């Protein structure tokens, strides 16, 4: 079976030789090509090449088209990204510097015509052509209730979210939701078929359940309304969200859940059951200092919790560059070994 | 009588309802309580209660932490203007986001709580070099340097808290200036703080204020 078929089997509960093994290494491609981060992220061709080389090196099941989270801010007018050769790029220019800028924020009528989109399109075109028939192609979309954090800074956004003025907040959310809808449609059109919907404000770690139900949920529904939700993965930026899994099923009808390493995985698996797909996620920050044996033991623990009953895949967070290559290799190999199915 | 205000104020803070919290403060002032009473018997106990609640229930959410700090800082600032004499400050901390890190929410929560706990806070902003942390701590006689890092590479970089530790060691300042760290990577690896040369860490902004006060007391009993 191809990795794409193995993923489909896990989602539908059909037989497969093993569980799917996902690995996310968006920042490692530059090193793979011997480039600076700034150069690597400048062209979609480089990103596709780097990710394809990583896929061939480690042999996991998915491939990423993500450039960096700040790409979305660039599509909305951000003019400066702070690149680092040892980690993820940062947004260095907030598009919204004061509340008056929200009225002026312009959502492109077609984001695919924006110059910053070109590299995304170029990358996905190559990935689709090279591995689209065999591998899941992952893309990253920030939810409307979280996107403002990279447009104005998390503290300013938290203040506006909680204290208002609420008409201004809702105007920003409407614009961000319009953008989110467009981005999802554009990524699907280019062949992305696993869309990681990043929604930290959909986690009770960020805001209360009441705030999720009353304020966040209606915007998430709006973000995801067009085009169905079979390919959407609920992901809260590594924050825990077991307490809202039922709510996400009921309100958003999302079936795939990317569980935080800090969450109780057994509880998450029990809550999701056969209704959807549970992703057990390793704490890859600890992998920086773990031995290969510790890494292997943790992979075994996660898979033993999740594998029973199927509907399970293994994944990681955002693999820090400081994680030794031997530990990445051990993680992937152990996931294949312990993930074998009878 | 103040007990009723404490209960109402705490309720408002936990529900992240700033207008309701400020209304409680105004009502208490109208009923004759002093600005000193408001800070020392209402605001500070509310922060301490939040610290206790977080210890018991680490799932208290970020919005509650943020509002605890913001309301406390706002009320304290307004009340301080009305104090009959300036309060005695516990100590001084230099805070900022690590070099290469542009995130500011965490340090804003920490700063808000510290100000209400009568700690002088010198906020250096984001993307701060190790040299600037140490030079400022020396020139301002701070007892603690607090380095916030939301990304793995800014937490572990030689230019972040490891750089601060090197400079403190090099200049013989380790006994008089303590180093605290915080931010998402430390939550995922609770041992990480030892690997970046810090004296202490905290899993959230409100608890960080307590950790920093404890460090100040180590240096300045």
Automatic annotation (TrEMBL), chain A:
Write one Pfam family the protein is assigned to. URO-D
Q: Which domain of life is it from?
A: Bacteria
- The Uroporphyrinogen decarboxylase (URO-D) domain covers 4-337
Q: Which InterPro entries match?
A: Methanogen_methyltrans, UROD/MetE-like_sf, Uroporphyrinogen_deCOase
| Record's protein name | Uroporphyrinogen decarboxylase family protein
Q: Which organism is it from?
A: Methylomonas fluvii
Automatic annotation (TrEMBL), chain B:
Gene3D superfamilies found in the cross-reference section: Cobalamin-binding domain
User: Which residues does UniProt assign to the signal peptide?
Assistant: none
- UniProt keyword terms in alphabetical order: Cobalt, Metal-binding
Q: Which domain of life is it from?
A: Bacteria
| Domain B12-binding span(s) in chain numbering | 90-221
Protein name per the record: Cobalamin B12-binding domain-containing protein
């Amino acid at each position: 079976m191809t990795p794409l078929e193995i993923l489909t089997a896990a989602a539908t509960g059909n037989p497969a030789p093993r569980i799917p093994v996902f690995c996310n290494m968006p920042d490692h491609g530059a090193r793979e090509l011997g480039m600076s981060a700034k150069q690597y992220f400048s062209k979609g061709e480089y990103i596709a090449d780097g990710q394809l080389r990583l896929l061939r090196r480690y042999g996991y099941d998915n491939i990423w088209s993500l450039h960096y989270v700040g790409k979305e801010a660039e599509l909305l007018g951000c003019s400066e990204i702070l690149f680092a050769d040892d980690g993820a790029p940062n947004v260095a220019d907030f598009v919204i510097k004061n509340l008056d800028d929200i009225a002026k924020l312009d959502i492109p009528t077609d984001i695919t015509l924006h110059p910053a989109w070109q590299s995304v399109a170029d990358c996905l075109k190559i990935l689709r052509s090279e591995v689209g028939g065999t591998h899941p192609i992952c893309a990253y979309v920030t939810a409307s209730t979280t996107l403002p954090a990279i447009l104005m800074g998390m503290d300013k956004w938290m203040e506006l979210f909680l204290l208002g003025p609420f008409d201004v907040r809702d105007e920003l959310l409407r614009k961000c939701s319009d953008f989110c809808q467009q981005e999802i449609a554009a990524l699907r059109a280019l062949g992305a078929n696993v869309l990681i919907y990043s929604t930290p404000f959909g986690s009770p770690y960020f805001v209360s359940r009441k705030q999720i139900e009353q304020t966040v949920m209606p915007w998430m529904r709006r973000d995801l309304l067009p085009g169905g939700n079979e390919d959407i993965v609920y992901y809260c930026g590594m924050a825990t969200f077991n307490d809202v899994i039922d709510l996400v099923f009921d309100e958003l009808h999302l079936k795939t859940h990317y569980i935080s390493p800090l969450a109780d995985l057994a509880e998450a698996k029990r809550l999701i059951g056969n209704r959807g797909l549970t992703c057990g996620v390793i704490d890859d920050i600890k992998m920086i200092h773990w031995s290969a044996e510790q890494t292997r033991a943790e992979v075994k623990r996660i898979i033993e919790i999740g594998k029973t009953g199927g509907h399970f895949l293994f994944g990681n967070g955002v693999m820090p560059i400081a994680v030794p290559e031997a530990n990445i290799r051990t993680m992937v190999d152990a996931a294949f070994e312990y993930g074998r199915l009878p | 009588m103040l007990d009723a205000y404490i209960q109402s104020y705490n309720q408002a803070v936990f529900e992240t309802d700033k207008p309701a919290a400020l209304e409680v403060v105004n009502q208490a002032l109208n009923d004759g309580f002093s600005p000193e009473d408001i800070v020392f018997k209402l605001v500070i106990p509310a922060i301490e209660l939040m610290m206790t609640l977080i210890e018991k229930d680490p799932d208290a959410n970020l919005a509650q932490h943020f509002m605890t700090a913001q309301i406390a800082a706002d009320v304290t600032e307004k009340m301080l203007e009305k104090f009959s004499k300036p309060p005695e400050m516990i100590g001084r901390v230099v805070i900022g986001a690590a070099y290469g890190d542009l995130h500011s929410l965490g340090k804003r929560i920490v700063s808000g709580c510290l100000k209400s706990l009568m700690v002088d806070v010198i906020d250096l902003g984001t993307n701060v070099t190790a040299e600037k942390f140490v030079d400022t701590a020396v020139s301002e006689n701070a007892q603690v340097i607090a380095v916030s890092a939301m990304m793995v590479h800014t937490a572990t970089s030689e230019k972040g808290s490891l750089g601060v530790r090197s400079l403190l060691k090099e200049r013989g300042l380790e006994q008089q200036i303590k180093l605290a760290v915080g931010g998402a990577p430390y939550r995922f690896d609770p041992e990480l703080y030892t690997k970046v040369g810090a004296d202490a860490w905290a899993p959230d902004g409100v608890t960080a204020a307590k950790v920093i006060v404890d460090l100040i007391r180590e240096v300045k009993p």
